[in-house]
Amino acid sequence: MEVLGAFISEKCEAKLWDPIVASRGGLAFSHLFFADNLVLFAKADQKNCTAIKDALNTFCELSSEKVSVDKFQVFFSPNTPQHTRDNLCNVLEFRSTPSLGKYLGFPIKHTSISQDFGAVIDHVQSRLASWKTHLLSFAGRLVLTQATIATIPNYYMQYASLPPKITQCVDKLCCNFLWGSTNNKKKLHLVNWRKITKPKEYGGLRLQSAKEKNIALLAKLNWRFHQEKDNLWARVLSHKYRPRPRQPLSRPRTCSAIWTALKKGEKVFKSGTKWIVGNDSNLREGPVKSLIMDPLNRGEDSLLLKDIVHNNSWDWGRLSFVFPAAFHQKIKATPIPIVAGGVDRLSWSSSPNGDFELKEAYRLACLTEKSNQFDSFMGSWVWEVLTLPKIKCFLWQCAHQSIPVRDVFTERGRSSGGGKIRNSNGEWVSGYARAIGTTTSVAAELWALRDGLNLCISLNLQAMEIELDAKLVVDLISKEGSKPNNNDVIVTDCREGLKKIPRVRVLHCNREANKCADALAREFAPILKAKDLSLKCWFESLVSERRAMPEVRSSELETGLLSSDDPAEGNTAVSVPQVVMAFHALEEVCGLDGETLSRFKDRFQFPDGVRVRLPHEEE
Fold first, then answer.
1. Closest listed residue to residue 301, CA positions, set 329, 320, 323, 327
2. Domain range summary for the chain, segments of one domain joined by +
3. What b-and-e string marks burial along 490-517, b requiring 16 or more CB atoms within 10 Å of the CB?
4. Contacts of 401 (CB under 8 A, 6+ apart)
């Protein structure tokens, strides 16, 4: 292959072969070799195709080898006319292809990310189909999940940011297999997936969530990008997207999938790395400059670290300004090299030898998600017991109060309900939450609907669209002649409430479209129950638009519920708006502590001027 590379280089030097340039002023390359595979790059014209044909023919004559016409394909850029493609294919005597396909299982050119990585799900499902889940204990399924299922996507996660659809599906498959659920037989997931993916010392099983693991592996890709900056792939990306050293990774409107992946893992990478200062560190862009807030005067930006250090101490007289006290202490604590010289070096903060640690990167990725905070767990001792793994897993379930017995189901049957009202522009109008008690999921949904209708009537709203994520409840409300059931009292109240609103219709929506109302029920109402507060509270808007609420033409009422009769198979995410403010009067009205306030401040769509009040007696 070296001989063929020499032939191609001669063609390029003779101006018979025009290499491809990845970016303006960037690197030009004409060929890539890997083992016995090669990719050739050239301009799509008669001269370059003739040069490619001559180089291949000369190589075949000298090596007594032949080019496989069936394996050799030509890929043209989209702006190449069809007649030009046909003429050039005739010169090369190779056929054209609309797609480069995959190499070593990875797409060479990305089209649709969801389609490119759909094979990950197929691979996991094919592996699960060969196992007999019902013959394995919980401990056995845990080992298989850790060693096999959860590791299948790792190869793809190293170089690409998998879409949420793929990562959520991987987590769902792992969770279903762990609890023994199949397509034909569903089983309860007694512990939330969010808890399972925590470390053992924090109450988890040391499984890793696909999304956070993907981010951790992309942080490793960032580490390689900085450590292997002289490699071809890093140089091409640097010239195209980051021409200045240490410039933050920007994301252009259109960029490669690799650069998008680098941008996705940059936050965790920066959180876990630090710069080791060298004597040749430049104050203009070195690690010391990150501690200097003021602009440098002329001449100071060319100073090196060794120019402002004298007798192993800082010579502040060389600089024209005084540092604030906080920055002065940070710079003072920065180690000054005595013997070691050279430029700045990148190091992984938590590693003794400075090398990248994937375990720490995963922990940092989990901490970036506010729902994945690690709380203390009093049952970590179960893993130190000298007994069988299946008994350890049983003790772990006991510590989480997740044994399928009557008392546990009774405790989990205590439901909560909540919802929110938005105007026709999607803006917040009002919201509510209630701690109900032990009941079914259908009854909890009806409780939430009745509370929402009472709130709408009190606000004198004239037109409403009610969205429920329980199809059974929608059918109960819509069909007047339904058979008697245990929820007749609440159903009748809901029907009478609907009659008091002039224009109203009840619609069914998916749980994914109802996340904020669902989170109100899951998060806020249980706190009311735990703190022995009122069984119901309302979130009321105090902004100026409050006076115009009776004239709202179109509104939406969304209801959510929390009940063990409808266990969540995965983590329930809450969509957070771009602007999240207020909550200022919550503590005075309901007596919640500051820690609880901080938990909910970033979780719900509470605009400025929202307070929480208990309903009046007539309400």
1. 320
2. 2-98, 294-342, 409-613
3. bbebbeebbeebeebebeebeeeebbbb
4. 408, 411
Q: Strand 309-310 relative to strand 313-314: parallel, antiparallel, unpaired?
A: antiparallel
Residue with tokens 């992984």: 348
- pLDDT tens digits for range 91-107: 888 888 887 777 777 77
Is the Cβ–Cβ distance between 288 and 331 less than 8 Å? yes
- Of how many residues is the chain composed? 619
pLDDT in tens, 294-348: 566 666 666 665 666 666 676 766 666 666 676 667 666 666 666 655 666 788 8
State the alpha helices, DSSP H only, in 350-416.
Answer: 358-368, 389-399, 406-412
Q: Residue 495: CB partners within 8 Å, gap ≥ 6?
A: 477, 480
Q: Where are the alpha helices (DSSP H) in 301-368?
A: 325-332, 358-368
List the Cα angle 353/358/364 in 5-degree steps: 105
Mapped onto helix, strand or coil, the DSSP state of residue 105 is coil
| Residue of 173, 169, 181 lying closest to 138 (CA atoms) | 181
Integer Cα distance of 9 and 1 in angstroms: 12
Owner of token pair 């056929």 = 95
Q: Name, in order, each residue with C-beta under 8 angstroms of 575's C-beta and a sequence gap of 6 or more.
A: 515, 516
Cα maximum dimension of the chain: 97
| Alpha carbon 419 to chain centroid, angstroms | 26
Say which residues have a Cβ less than 8 Å from residue 483's Cβ, sequence separation at least 6: none
Distance CA 498, CA 464 (A): 9
- Token reading at 519: 């989170």
- DSSP secondary structure letter of residue 616: P
Structure tokens at 162: 């998998």
- How crowded is the C-beta side of 256, counted as CA atoms within 13 Å? 17
Place of tokens 């094979």: 119
Superfamily of domain 409-613: Ribonuclease H-like superfamily/Ribonuclease H (3.30.420.10)
Nearest of 496, 422, 494 to residue 459 by alpha carbon: 422
Distance CA 45, CA 88 (A): 7
Say how many CA atoms lie within 13 Å of 302 toward its Cβ.
Answer: 2
57: enclosing H helix or E strand: helix 46-63
Cα–Cα distances (Å) from 88 to 73, 98, 509, 564, in that order, read 12, 15, 54, 66
Q: Name residues whose C-beta falls within 8 Å of residue 35's C-beta, 6 or more positions apart in sequence.
A: none
Cα gap 619→565, rounded to integer Å = 29
The single residue listed with the structure tokens 């920055």 is 327
Query: Distance between CA atoms of 472 and 333, rounded to whole angstroms?
Result: 64
Confidence band of 205 (pLDDT split at 50, 70, 90): very high
pTM: 0.68
**Roughly what angle, to the nearest 10 degrees, separates helices 471-478 and 488-499?**
70
The whole-angstrom separation of Cα 319 and Cα 327 is: 14
Contact 412, 441 (CB under 8 A): no
Count other C-beta atoms under 10 Å from residue 550's C-beta: 9
